[in-house]
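Here's what a typical entry looks like (peptidylprolyl isomerase):
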Amino acid sequence: MKGAAKKILVLVMTVFLLVSLGGCQEEEVAAEVNGDIITRAQLEERMLIFNLLMPDYAQSLEDEYFRGYVEQNLLTSMIQGTLVEQELERLELEIDEEDFEATFQAEVEEIIREYFDTEESLYQKMEEVNLEEVVLRNLVREGYLTQFLYEHITKEVTEEEGRIFFEENKTLFSNPAQVKVSHILVEEQEEAKKIINRWEEGESFEELLGEFSLDQPGEFIIYEEDVNFDQDFTRAAFEVNSGEISPPVETQFGWHVIKLHDRQEAQVFTFEEVKEEALAFKKEEVFTLYFNDLYEKADITNNLESI
């Protein structure tokens, strides 16, 4: 399964960020999915993985609300993993166990590179927290099975479907015009005019900025039609020529003198230029619809929701 190891590692790390601490008894049922049980003990095992790889989160997890929130997210992930396994069984699809083993080893190597110096130190730490390798293996397997089902469900997505998605969502495949600017902010218009005069006489804009500006963020990028910036400021910034400065610009913050450092025009890509990306978006859409339907039709009891 080419490229699966890296994809699954991302899934594994996403799950790690959703795990929390909390006591549980082995006989307690956390959730039931179409008759299959997920126990609180299994949740605790996932929590051990989190403790192993993300010890800095231990203090945050002392907060009861945060702990409950991430625990619920973790259980949702496990419910989804159970649904994937059930669906593969229904479809009578079997993975290549040798390929999974290779993927698992690649995941372990990635974890060692990211968090531990050696394989020995990883397994020593696992032993200290009573974490068996099978728990880590099961987590990786969950991600592997999800990727396997994804590839099966989306394998029939055609180039034409990708093209239609592209035509209907062109804003996803374009880059808006942008400018890189810096500015001097002062309280009065006359101050701004004096700054412009001194710049025209040859003084450095950077030196004038350091001397006068009430705001000194350095250079920054503005995108055309970006609602996060004052629209008067944005409009003026796009009217300046490269290397030049603006006349005084009034905004709610005061008066600005804007210098343009760089400009990039809007880019609109053709389908051929972004074909792979468009196909990936379409496949994601197809799988999301498929899995949401699977989830909605499932008989799921989540016992954490009542806690």
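The chain has two domains: 4-163+274-306, 178-262.

More examples are in the samples folder.
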